[in-house]
Amino acid sequence: MEHRKTYNAKEIKTSKGSLIIEGPIPPQKLADLEFHKDLVAFRPPEQQKKALIEIAGLPEGRINIARYRDTIVGYVTYVYPDPLERWSEGKMKNLIELGAIEVIPEFRGTGTGKSLLKVSMMDDAMEDYIIITTEYYWHWDLKGTGLNVWEYRKVMEKMMNAGGLEWYATDDPEISSHPANCLMAKIGKRVDLDSIQKFDRLRFMNRFMY
């Protein structure tokens, strides 16, 4: 399948200043921008910037950013699922994963995360995909936010809902290992029935195991 990418941008006003929410961003533009030192959720900032540039260069890879002047203060990534995860087992060309979303502490609570998701879904090509995200409580910044597991889960769910993602049941062992973990997904308008059925089979792979 051809991976179309159409750039969209939107300015949002926050109490901390105006941000430009934009993307998908090409690798060269990412390389030219500053990457905020507080973007540390997944790996050190310089390593994470390098990872985002690599993702942006992949045919299916998409990076949308929140930019304060010339500095990236938040981002969301879309890429094929990790080959070690069950979601890649169907080898579906039209299933991509919202792999990471991060906003620096200074801009949290300003709606930046929701705006990142909304702008990324403004691209009509997203209607060709099943977009999934897997939420694991051990990835959450409970310490930094002071929220408990359930409060954080509520915040995450609300944010994902802003991008049209909804909760989906699954028997995936990692997700099932804690009740706060969850699978969320958005099935694009142009996704065919065969792909939806394939996705359902990926969600319930242990159904017939006794």
Automatic annotation (TrEMBL):
One of its GO terms (biological process) is acetoin catabolic process. Keywords: Transferase. GO terms for molecular function: acetoin dehydrogenase (NAD+) activity; acyltransferase activity, transferring groups other than amino-acyl groups. Gene3D superfamilies: 3.40.630.30. Residues 23-189 form the N-acetyltransferase domain. This is GNAT family N-acetyltransferase.
